[in-house]
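2024-03-11 09:14:02 DEBUG pipeline.ingest accepted 1 chain
2024-03-11 09:14:02 DEBUG pipeline.ingest length=870
2024-03-11 09:14:03 DEBUG pipeline.predict start
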Amino acid sequence: MNRFFCFLCLLAFTAGLGGNAGCSRQHYRHKADQEIYSVLRQGNNDPRWRVDDYRITPDATSRMYNPFNPDGEPMPTDDPASHRKMHNVGGMKGSHGWYEHGRTQHVENPRWRQYLLVNEKGEIPLDKERALELSIVHSPDYQAARERLYLAAMAVSEQRFRYDVQYFGNSSNGSPRGSLNYDIDTLENSAGFGINRRFATGGTLLVDLANSITWSLTGEGSWNAGTTLNAVITQPLLRNASRKVELENLTQAERNFLAALRQMVFYQQGHYTRIVTGTVPQNTGASGSGGFYQLLSEQIQIQNQRQQIIGLEDNLNRFDELFEAGQSERINIEETRQRLLQAQSNLLGRVNSYQNNIEAYIRSLGLPPDLQVTIDDPLLEQFQLISPTLTLLMENVGGSLAIMREREQPLPENFREQIKDVIRRAEGEIAVLHQDLEMLQRGMPERIANLQKLETVLAERIAGGERIAPDIYDSEIFINRINTLRNDEIPRTLSRLQASFTLLHLIADTDEETLREMIRNRSFEAPVQEALMLLNLSDSADAHLTEQQREFARVAEELKQLQEELGVEPTPEPDAQSVITEVRRRDNYRDWVRRAFSVFQNELVTLSLMQTRTRLDTMTLVPVSVTPEEAFQIASENRLDWMNRRAALVDAWREIDIMADALKGVLNLRVAGNLGTTDRYGVQFSKNNSDLTVGLTWASPLTRHAEMMNYRSSQIAYQRARRDYYTYVDTVQAELRNTLRDVQMSQINFEINRNAVLIGTIRVDVMQLRMERPPTRAGIDTNISRQLIDALDDLTRSQNDLLNTWVTFQTRRMVLDCYMGTMQLDERGRWIEPDVMSSTAGGMREQAPFLSIPVPIIETPRLNRRYVEE
């Protein structure tokens, strides 16, 4: 019984040592990360595909961050029915150890929202830089790309480990009899330690040191020890004997890791392109839909729609005035009102679609749709052809005019203060126009140079018979247009606007009674008289007279002259002067102020047109002058996925040799030896207790059916890889050619749409002037409302087309940079935008030598002909 108790104690002690020999989960996790990061540092040394700031663990601010111990994850909320299977499964009681790490209701990081930067309204200001940062931190797709690189490095670590010296040890206790009972006479403890090494030639080395101690548990007790040193060397001589076969797994892992590094950089380029433009370049591995450019363009289109609504409201107010004066048909009012309602409905639809697209976009960043964001980026400010402050000013002036037309509604008490504020804001818009003119002046040389390049590009098309308007590319026409705008049209607009300021100052600085007397007696000072003459308001005191009243006054004056010629006593009927005097007794102050405000509104519209034309001609595009042949050559030397494709083709070629090696017979050389001890203590080794054996292991290749099929499959796979490779090359070439055509077409369309917007603004201006002309006796043209509506529609459409063309050009230019392999990102993952894209600026980098050892050249046609003959 005592012997059995001793045996149990020894067994428990040994088991305790073995149980404590293992390391913790945390230890192995950290060790794995250290090894993988070491592999990454060693392979991440080429600037063409360097991955900066790589780490597998998400940032602490990320929604993906794990706030719990990764080696002791609490159990998330489970499905109740499924959870019961963990406690009772197959009629057996389950384990209670599932709860040793606790429970949690959180799947995402519960604190990630507190790290978001918000404004005073609780909204996240989002520009393209911030959108990229958020996607890198929160996007699951981006994290998956990091993990793919980690797994590729892990395969390298595993293969390298196979060629490290492997250490192993073991220990066992028990009865040599192989049974456990109360009559145990001896107890044996065996322990061993050894190393195992694999060589690049396919050989292996095994060295094992084994020690055994035996205790006798009978009588007084005795013990005996023995130690043996064993060594075995095995070297294949036929099958698996070459380095290329033995190192194949390591070679493939290293090549896959290099491909993963390149693919990660290519993914980052595609990810940036998708985040900004919404376009996913092929083969980058990026995913998602919608881009920042789309949201910005929708913002501008919404503003264009609002500007169209302002123009329709202004026209509707004018038609109302003309109808009240008997100078317009009601059809003009109703057509304009109908189009206004349609425009308002379209605006609501655009705003709704914009909100949906915002939510879809922030989801593509890895964020939930309930986040409140505001899209703000100066990138597309150039397409705000009318400044938002000027748009708001025109809306406010339109609202004041609506109040003035309601005769039953009194003017606001602070009406004169409002006029002063309007003047101040309008003067600020004049300063904005001067700034726009300065920017246009600075950009003139670049615009002229771009037009001259465009003319060179279009020369072949024009020579081929294509009819292209010279306004699109002629720099002389552009210069003349700018000179006319700067020296004639803008000064005339500012002069009329200053005249309207004079009238507004008069209204703001003069009390109502005094101004009424001035209007009644036409006793204005010289500056006011000059302003009235310039604005065609010198007869504004009588402007509110209806056509019927004017006609009645004209007939009364003719009757009076006829009575004087005939010597007839004048009739008591009222003459023209009495009619006019009677009309003047009405509220001429309010009518005069309303007309002054109406003219001021017209001048603001003209100012907006001048601002539109100035900003329109300031826009420029980055020149792209790369031929398809140059782009293809650049891509063949710099495109990362093309490098991976070449490597994959060679991998398929290498596989043929690997499979062919398996067709050989097996012939292995085996050398084994052992050296034992002869003393009781097991420490004195002796040659008398040793042996050495040398032998060959051979197996003839009589049955190689599976190996034969694998070999033939590898040949077919290589032929497929060849076809896939040149199909890929054809696809790349087609992509480059199509992209370049799109870029060139966008450059041409941009100039066409620029001129279309210019014509649209002039057309709207002309139609506005037609409404200001003195009407004929029959009133204004009944078609003018439809013409105005069409002009505003065409202008809005042209503005949107111009914006879409610019977005298309920027998108295709970015995609072209990616497809050529010349796209560069800074340390924050942002595109380093090239100033010029050409064969020289794009950079045809010198390609590194393919091999550093001489390779014999095989005459392939003769070899193929011989193969066919055989």
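2024-03-11 09:14:41 DEBUG pipeline.report Residues 138 and 357 are 19 Å apart (CA to CA).
2024-03-11 09:14:41 DEBUG pipeline.predict end
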